[in-house]
Amino acid sequence: MTSAQLEKILKKHDHQKASLLAILQDIQALENYLPRKILEEVSQQLQVPLAQIYYLATFYRAFSLTPRGRHLVTVCTGTACHVKGAASILNTMERELAVKPGETTSDKKYTLETVNCLGSCALAPLVVVDGHYHGRMLGTKVLSLLRGEKDASKKS
Amino acid sequence: MRLKSPDELEQVRTQILAERKAREGEKRIILCTGTGCRGAGALEVLEAFEKVLGPKSVIEFKSTCCHGFCERGPITIIEPLGIFYQRVTPERVPQIIAETVKKGQVIEDLLYQDPETGQAIPAEKDIPFYKKQQRLVFGHNRYIDPTRIEDYLAVGGYKALIKALFHMSPDEIIEEVKRSGLRGRGGGGFPAGRKWESCRRAHGDIKYVICNCDEGDPGAYMDRSLMEGNPHSVLEGMIIGAYAIGAREGYVYVRNEYPLAVENVGIAIEQAQKMGLLGKNILGSGFDLTLVINKGGGAFVAGESSALMASIEGYVAEPRAKHIHMVESGLWERPTNLNNVETWANVPVIIEKGAAWYSSIGTQGSKGTKIFSLVGKINNTGLIEVPMGMTLREIVYDIGGGIPGGKRCKAVQTGGPSGGCIPESLFDLPVDFDELTKAGSMMGSGGMIVMDESTCMVDIAKYFTHFLKDESCGKCTSCRDGTLRMYEVLDAITKGKGKEGDIEFLQELGWVTSEASLCALGGSAPNPVLSTIRYFRDEYEAHIRAKRCPAGVCTALLTYTIDPEACIACGKCKKECPTEAITGEKKVPHEIDQAKCIKCGTCREVCPVDAVKVA
Prior knowledge:
- Chain A is of the alpha+beta class and 156 residues long.
- Chain A has two domains: 57 residues, no CATH class; 85 residues, 3-Layer(aba) Sandwich (Glutaredoxin).
- Chain A is 49% helix and 12% strand.
- The longest helix of chain A has 17 residues.
- Chain A is elongated, with a radius of gyration of 18 Å.
- Chain B folds into five domains: 94 residues, Glutaredoxin; 212 residues, Rossmann fold (3-Layer(aba) Sandwich); 84 residues, Ubiquitin-like (UB roll); 89 residues, NADH-ubiquinone oxidoreductase 51kDa subunit, iron-sulphur binding domain (de novo design (two linked rop proteins)); 56 residues, Alpha-Beta Plaits, CATH 3.30.70.
- Chain B is globular, with a radius of gyration of 26 Å.
- Chain B is an alpha/beta fold.
- The relative contact order of chain B is 0.09.
- Chains A and B meet through helix 2, helix 4, helix 5, helix 6 and helix 7 of A and helix 2, strand 11, strand 15, helix 18 and helix 24 of B.
């Protein structure tokens, strides 16, 4: 992120301390995570202690302090998905990608995350890959989905 | 165009209605592109419609948000015939246009089939899922493209606002809402009119109204669907409320995971401002109101009113003690009235139709209708709106169509992570605020998760406790550590490490967590545990004493075996097993090496003859 881009975000929110959450959301949207350097600059510009920014950044689930993978795999663990077997779907994902939720594969290809309900309960259990919904999942469908993704990314 | 009087608004409405009347008999296509249908491929269907119709098409096409019957999405309705097509795919679009839109012919296999009689039902209104509902608030969704304010005006939108601003005093409005018996739909169930009255009477020049759309309960998505599908109804309620209370600024706080809701309410606010329904001197009444959208950061506790206000102020969403109520000292220590999306959307209905009419619906202590999300092990997953007091049995069997696969229903979980499980034996209970609380659960925001015999109640308690321990903000020791300790005990029980006295310990721990925590998150955190112990103690005992999970869910207590009699030695399980734990040759029944088995269930999933047994 360039200084100009950051300045644009800060200006959009009138350099208001009360808009800190929204400012961090904009940075996260642009960078896919919150780089420390940028947070330091925000701290200086808004005259907010860096600790307070980190307090926000670690409190809310929407933020990540580490770079995320090129593909985001989200397993819905809402109640409807849970009673329809989301735990086993998540286990299979963890095993296949060899990461835990919140982590990124060592090749920076996939970040695995969970979400507490996406309101698409009719599709339970649900997995979302880069915004594409894959509903009524089964363990075996997870395998073919990941293999398909891997094949597709090889081609591209 | 900024409208300066109620008459000008009525003129606009008359014009819209006249234009529509002129096209009354023409065929119209309505496609649901709400979140549920999107997940099922509605955007691809939309693209297909656009492609087949072409840019010069004169056929009216409307893309709406959620209609409620998510199980059958993507949903397409052809008006004025009222034909309801379900699970529409892009490939079927040319046929729909050629046969139904152009010739008025019904395509049989796209219709909903009554599962009992096997009969195809062409019209939406005749489908059992819709028949028993009373959709006061949610019903307009199917007529409205949420990005077009004209659609809201066409169904009578902002009529209640005119009535409130020009024919009622603030006190009269509050009196009307009080008499309607409307109670907060977000979970608390506090009488809305009384809250408004306290806020109006509170000292201070600057007051705020807030709409809480931080819908965090997993399995509940009615606020999202209202906000996405009919944002103007929520705004209209807020404007009326702000006028009654004396607020001139307001906030709409939307959950981070709901980008479409943020987008649609943003468009709605902009349109309302342009038309003079928001901003300075609304419709020439002299009343001003500015609304701002705030996006949440993904924290369950932010749905709690004081935490939500802290989040708007730019702090972490931690609740505070409410010795002084938020209506006295809320956002920036000023009087603040916060209501949930569904509560606000009920306000225009009450003002327009009157408190007497509204309060004729529902039960003694709970008036009007409630939107529930009926999900889990149920045939008709979706959003339903029913009068308060309908029994769980009617909801699960008549509207929900019962349990898939002919399984036995075990319980319904209501109220989200703060709620509890209601066993099948209590299904004749009328659903309202007070009855659910008496049964050890709560209304919450209206999530209803149906569970069948293959759902383990100890696992469910563990699931919610895991959720709550993650989402506890950590301010109160009793909540932070109480939920963690409860989780540890439950985890041990599900892994066969439970011991005598665990149940009593959980009960005691639950009591402390509840009594010593500041906000409702901690206060209600033990509910899932205590209600499952209350109604399903035998399942806990089976886990603790016999080290057995009767529902076959807790993996550590399960053993997968292959029935040699049933096995056809097809090799499918052997091929798919991720740990190569299965051995066997052609024509030789397969076997599972228990030392290698990780109990992932893949073999059971792929077995064509159900030969894999779990015990």
